[in-house]
Amino acid sequence: MIEQLKKDKKTGRVSFLLKNSSPAFANSLRRLMMEFVPTMAIEDVTFVKNDGALYDEMLAHRLGLVPLTTDLKGYDIKKAEDEVSAKNSIKLTLSAKGPCTVYSGDLKSKDPKVKPVFPNMPLVKLLKGQELELEATAVLGLGKQHVKFTPCLAWYVYQPKVTINNNHKQFDEFKDKYPPQAFTNGKLDAKLIEQHNLYEAVDGINDEIVKVERDPTTFIFTIEPWGQLSCAEILATACDSFTELLNQFSEALEK
Hints:
Elements: E1 2-7, E2 14-18, H1 23-35, E3 39-50, H2 56-64, E4 89-97, E5 100-103, E6 108-109, E7 122-126, E8 131-141, E9 152-164, H3 171-174, E10 183-184, E11 187-188, H4 190-195, H5 199-202, E12 210-225, H6 231-254
Antiparallel strand pairs: 1-2, 2-12, 3-8, 4-6, 4-8, 5-7, 9-12, 10-11
């Protein structure tokens, strides 16, 4: 069971609860989101002209790490044995003349649905008279093939439960050992501990004053997307990939 906790509208980061689960399933879901959700990334670059300070290889590497918005319905994953085609790739072009700074937004895509997520990423500086002209091929790939295809960073922790006893006889002796952000009117506050994520800071000081327990069947998941896909798309695609992999495993067992 999944229950959303919060969403950061600025960064797109989402946190949710995964209930009645196990570490094996939680880690499988984490790896699926990072390694089995396809995104677009630049794979090949053909340079027509490059007078800038960066070698072709260095500039191609920078281009490959530019996150591109991804249309999962419009393209197929390019496998190693597949030829480059309109179904698994898209062409982007770039033409610039110095003096200027060349940004990721200067890449012109043949498909408006596939473009740099962050148009202000600097690629290279060109001096007066220097020119850069290239054609790049972006393909749909998986994070297990290369990290440039990874759509997000995903992690999880056990859901903690905090029990506080502000009336303990040793409270005055230990209160200075707890972070000041955990106090309201001189008393420890469980809501502030949760709000500021102070579980590790208060754990182990005195279990009779503050006790932190963790539920081994409930996980707080966090997804931080790089912008190619939304968190909802990442999670849904990861679940679909999980189902497909389990079906393949079941079929292999039957054979």
